[in-house]
Design brief:
homodimer; 196 residues; mainly alpha; 2 domains; 8 helices; DNA-binding
Chain lengths: 196, 196
DNA sequence: CGAATCGTTCAAAAGCGCGTGAAACTATCT
DNA sequence: AGATAGTTTCACGCGCTTTTGAACGATTCG
């Protein structure tokens, strides 16, 4: 086998991973930007995109070469993407290498991330706001009834507004997420729903 | 309510800005967290929140004291918030100090930011994806027709999917934004739309 | 007009997240 | 088992962002 490898190298075999096409570079950079905007790491977007556009499973080495990343970066990025459930590791019998493939259903992917990230954060915020209301009443009780009556009144009112808004956000997210399976079917309904 | 400035100064130079209440601290920290998640700076969220909960215009000095920030930080943060249109500077005749007040309509604020930030980014992404499609055809033409035929086919298909999704996102944002004025009225409709 | 107060700017410093690369670890092949 | 290829982990350092604080500018009042 060892000679076999030599033979391949002699035969001018590419180092296994071709470089990125221009089109791949554009898309992966763009999605990398979006990921940063959304508070993720740029390389998560880039790696996912390359896998997505490849259409077939790739090895870590191929990703390393195509994206010019260190082995460590590739491994950690793939680990994170795996934890988010947007990249799967394929184990192939009789091959030392692991292969990775992207979740192909993009909308499913987005909705999963929304559920696990945005929703958790919003729920947490609602709880915090309600804690703040409690703290407010405690404060009013502790100080004289006069002390900051006006200030307290404004706060009560506005914190309630914030809670309302957060709950609206939660409701919207839930609607998006639960519609994730219907996929395209509700898209036209959404469009029709708009007023012109 | 209008207890004299004199009284305060006699009482041992209360440095004009009381400290934050516990309730204010909780809410401003929470919103600061959310802002970071959304890709903004923590202090933007904290400053806006303190102004919002104050219900009345505050001076830069008061913000500095309540949030323990340097003068520079307050100035720059207020500048940014102003550019986003979520904080107004009030100029009072016969007072050296500037006062600042928060946009009180939270939903209006959110939708404005979405329009200027998220939407711009999505539009830009759509353009980039379309550029990528062009680059893809150029590449196919340049290389032989055989070369990476399969790879090209997958890319075409998937980049189209991305464009579709991005356009869906844009449509949804537009719907949200244009409904911003109706405010509460469409909220129930949204809730009813959900399946249980 | 000059003193006093407040706001803004900007260069330097601090803080922090990210990628790196080598070492440890695991799995496959001879 | 030993050798080799592949992967993961982690301490370190680099670069970017944020914060600071002092100098400068602006506005009001005596």
């Amino acid at each position: 086998m060892g000679e076999g490898i030599q033979a391949r190298e002699q035969a001018g075999e590419q180092p296994s991973g071709e470089s990125l096409w221009e089109s791949e570079r554009i898309v992966s950079d763009t999605i990398g930007r979006l990921m940063v905007l959304w508070g993720f790491k740029r390389n998560m977007g880039r790696v996912w995109t390359v896998l997505y556009l490849a259409g077939e499973p790739l090895t870590a080495k191929q990703l390393r070469e195509r994206l010019q990343l260190s082995s460590g970066a590739v491994s950690m990025t793939l680990g994170e993407l795996g934890r988010w459930g947007v990249v799967r590791k394929l184990w192939v019998q009789g091959d030392r290498r692991d292969f990775y493939e992207a979740e192909a259903n993009v909308w499913k992917m987005v909705s999963r991330v929304m559920r696990e990230r945005e929703r958790a954060e919003i729920v947490q915020a609602i709880e915090a706001f309600e804690d703040a209301l409690l703290a407010l009443e405690r404060q009013v009780a502790a100080r004289g009834r006069e002390a900051g009556a006006a200030r307290a009144r404004v706060q009560r009112e506005r914190i309630h507004k914030l809670i309302e808004l957060a709950k609206l956000g939660r409701t919207m997210l839930d609607a998006l997420i639960s519609n994730a399976r219907l996929d395209a079917s509700w898209l036209p309904r959404f469009k029709l729903g708009r007023s012109r």
